[in-house]
Design a protein that fits this description.
Shape: globular
Distance between the termini: 34 Å
Radius of gyration: 17 Å
Helix content: 25-40%
Largest sheet: 6 strands, mixed
Number of helices: 7
Length: 213
């Protein structure tokens, strides 16, 4: 496992940006029951961690998408992170709304990107990948080339991996579900008996404890 994945996973647990509650599951907006809840926006409140996220996302972009000419953040979670990354890289920045505004100019993409520009997308969290790939579709429709996406965290759901393959979008993340579980088990944040419960959820999150919803 990469050192940055371990480090960032431990930091997420430390600031409680990730919470694991196998015995008292959360309910997501989708209606899914889940033993884990992730809020990467909490990292913005801790200056050293905020800087770590910014710099490591920049490293991912420099390594995998050096051709990027602009940065686009996905609203709302990655607006701030995307702006920090673009500022560090000295690139133009914009962000993508979930849908066009119903007033004013009716913009879905806020900011200015040159048509045909090579754009890297910054996201905070990948679950099913639906909202992230809608942002990609909006950017492509606008007339730019999406070279790839970087994000802070992914659950690594097969449905998301397949969706990204079909959309032709390369994704690189700072950390993932396996890294968080490994760090949580190592530090005693979760019990050994919780690991199989968390693995079961990952295999079929839509049906896990559905009867309790």
């Amino acid at each position: 496992m990469d050192n940055i994945k371990k480090l960032f996973a431990s930091k997420l647990l430390e600031v409680e940006a990730v919470k694991l509650q196998p015995e008292n599951p959360f309910t997501w907006a989708s209606g899914w029951r889940s033993p884990i809840y992730t809020d990467n926006r909490k990292t913005l409140s801790f200056p050293r961690l905020r800087s770590l996220v910014k710099l490591e996302l920049c490293h991912l972009i420099q390594e995998h998408f050096p051709e990027a000419e602009a940065v686009a953040g996905v609203a709302t979670g990655a607006i701030a992170q995307g702006a920090l990354v673009a500022d560090e890289l000295g690139l133009p920045y914009s962000y993508v709304r979930p849908k066009p505004k119903d007033h004013g100019m009716g913009n879905q993409i806020e900011g200015e990107i040159k048509k045909g520009a090579k754009v890297v997308v910054v996201e905070d969290l990948i679950s099913t990948g639906g909202s992230s790939l809608k942002a990609v579709a909006a950017l492509r429709a606008y007339g730019v080339e999406v070279v790839g996406m970087v994000a802070s965290f992914t659950y690594g759901f097969p449905v998301a991996e397949e969706a990204f393959r079909e959309a032709g979008v390369q994704l690189f993340t700072l950390s993932d579900y396996e890294a968080v579980l490994a760090q949580a088990a190592q530090t005693g944040y979760i019990k050994e008996s919780d690991i199989e419960v968390l693995a079961q959820w990952r295999r079929n999150p839509a049906e896990w404890r559905k009867e309790e919803a």
